Amino acid sequence: MMVENKKFFVKFIHPVFVCITYLFLYLPISILVLFSFNDSPVSIKWVGFSLRWYKKLIQSPEIIDALRTSLIVAFSATFLSILLGTCFVLANRWWKSSFLTNLFYTNVLLPEIIFAIGILSIFTFFRIPVGYGSLITGHTLIGLGFTVPIVKARFSELDPLLTEASLDLGATYSQTFKKVIIPLLMPSLLASSLLVFTLSLDDFLIAFFCSGPTVQTLSVYVYSMVRAGVDPTINAISTCFLVVSSILILALCFFKIIDQVI
Amino acid sequence: MNFISRILADELPFLFACPALLWEVVFLFLPLLVLIVYSFLDYSVQSHAFVITFEYYKQVFNSLYIQVIINSFILAITTAFICLLIAYPVALYLALKVKKQFRTFLLFLLILPSWTSLIIQIYAWFFLLEKNGVVTHILCNLGIISQSTHLLNNYFSIIIGMVSCFLPFMIFPIYSVLEKIDPLLLESSADLGANRFETFKRIVMPLSKPGVYVGLLLVFIPSFGEFAIPSLLGGSKMVFWGNLIVDKFLKSKDWRSGSALACIGILLPLLIIVSSIFIVKLVKKLSSPNNQQRTNKARDVWS
């Protein structure tokens, strides 16, 4: 009896539990997506299929503006954090000091709200108006906390003999860098840039604190809309967000670099 | 000139590392320092100078604020442990039971919600649970709840939102540790006569400990400072540390007491966690004095 009970647990309860967990994660999202195609402003009843909320989305100048802001910030933050992070990792090899790398783990160990008030206070302290500058600064800071560990993990796995061989065979430093080091680092660079891009696109707290009165990112805009109540336009935006992130993750899977991020 | 170029060549790696370090120091550590200094300084009108004061800390400790900080600590701990309870079986299943091909798909499904905006995940729950939402409608028709029951704006809805948003961050670290366990270890344990439970207790659990710790940290920290979930799913009645910080810095512009609040909010959880780890270690040491001897004996037998 006891043994049978155990088998029952292993064979039946465990998979069911996993299924329920996935359902718990996906039920809200799928209903959200479903109702973005609903032809009615009320959220209970299914009236019919329509794309009218998506049309409204494209026609709203505020949303387009917010999207542009989000994209500008995300692209610059990704570029900056990849550039700075890679330079740091490459330089770190000559020092072999782990203390300096550990500095970047603080980014994970502090609540994000602290970064937000920190950047807000430093910008107000020096009387620099907040806006694009503070947003990009903050997102680069968050991004560095992910770029440095990811690129460093890859970099420390590289065989130093490869660079030596390249130098022995007559390549200059810059050639070795371009033709050996960068291609070998490419998976981690791609993975971390995709990660930083999504983080920046999705970030709410830093944008909420540091965007100022004139600049608005998409997630802050969505937040203010949610405060006002349910609106199918938000469902449409959310669906677009979901599509974009699934494309990014599929790209990760496609390049086989998914394990760099997890 | 030659001298300068030689120095430049020697110190080039250092120069490369500088921008990232500067960024980190100027935009993270300097502001933290400013916060700490801010919370201790006060401008006195009589002497026209800055004086050190503990007034703002007194304010925090004497008022409801400390209760708020404790509340958010409890909320974060609850979230972390509920996440652990749900995440461990899932991670175990993914790592040990699922075939490789299907596993990638399941992992993809887990990453997707954690890579979408937090606000959207919150909105999804908001959409489900609100007064005219789907869940309320269904439960009403089934007669489980009455028309006037609010599923939103209570502790329960906050916990649901927190758990669903932070669950993937608990599953990933545990999964990545469990995945690395050598299946031969499990086999040999079974061969040596241990049943499933025994194998789990003696082999899987100790090996997965680092993943569990990382997961607890990854869930605890963001949920302690969370602002959007309580403010959207919890209504205005429940106040947590994050909401207070937003209030102090953005609405009332009361920066000094806000800084004191922020400093306490960083230090208090840290202190509680470190001291509890210390106490647990101490208790373990005191309660099993012959543990060390036993392992020594085992070592003797083997060597």
Report on this structure:
With 262 residues, chain A is mostly helical. Helix content of chain A is 80%, strand content 0%. Chain A has helices spanning 2-35, 52-59, 61-95, 98-103, 106-109, 112-125, 132-157, 160-168, 173-202, 205-210, 218-228, 232-254, 258-261. Chain B has 303 residues and is mostly helical. Chain B folds into 2 domains: 1-53, no CATH class; 64-282, MetI-like (MetI-like fold, Orthogonal Bundle). Chain B contains 14 helices and 2 strands; from the N terminus they run H-H-E-E-H-H-H-H-H-H-H-H-H-H-H-H.
Largest interface, counted by CB within 8 Å of the partner chain's CB: A-B, 84 and 80 residues
Question: SS-based structural class of chain A?
Answer: mainly alpha
The shape of chain A is globular
Point out poorly predicted stretches of chain A.
none
Total helical elements of chain A: 13
Biggest sheet descriptor of chain B: 2 strands, antiparallel
What is the N-to-C order of secondary-structure elements of chain A (H for helix, E for strand)? HHHHHHHHHHHHH
Order of helices and strands of chain B: HHEEHHHHHHHHHHHH
Per DSSP, the total helix count of chain B is 14
* Count of discrete structural domains of chain B: 2
Beta-strand content bin of chain B: under 5%
Radius of gyration of chain B using CA atoms only = 26 Å
- The appropriate CATH architecture of the largest domain in chain B is Orthogonal Bundle
Separation, N- and C-terminal Cα atoms of chain A: 41 Å
Low-confidence stretches of chain B: none
**Largest beta-sheet characterization of chain A:** none
Percent of residues in helices of chain B: over 70%
State Rg of chain A: 23 Å
Would you count the extended β strands of chain B for me? 2
Question: Which secondary structure elements does this structure contain, and how are they paired or packed?
Answer:
The complex is a heterodimer of chains A (262) and B (303).
Chain A: H1 2-35, H2 52-59, H3 61-95, H4 98-103, H5 106-109, H6 112-125, H7 132-157, H8 160-168, H9 173-202, H10 205-210, H11 218-228, H12 232-254, H13 258-261
Helix pairs in contact in A: 2-12, 3-7, 3-9, 6-7, 7-9, 8-9, 9-12
Chain B: H1 2-10, H2 12-40, E1 41-44, E2 49-52, H3 55-62, H4 65-97, H5 100-114, H6 118-129, H7 134-142, H8 155-179, H9 183-191, H10 196-224, H11 228-233, H12 241-251, H13 255-287, H14 291-302
Antiparallel strand pairs in B: 1-2
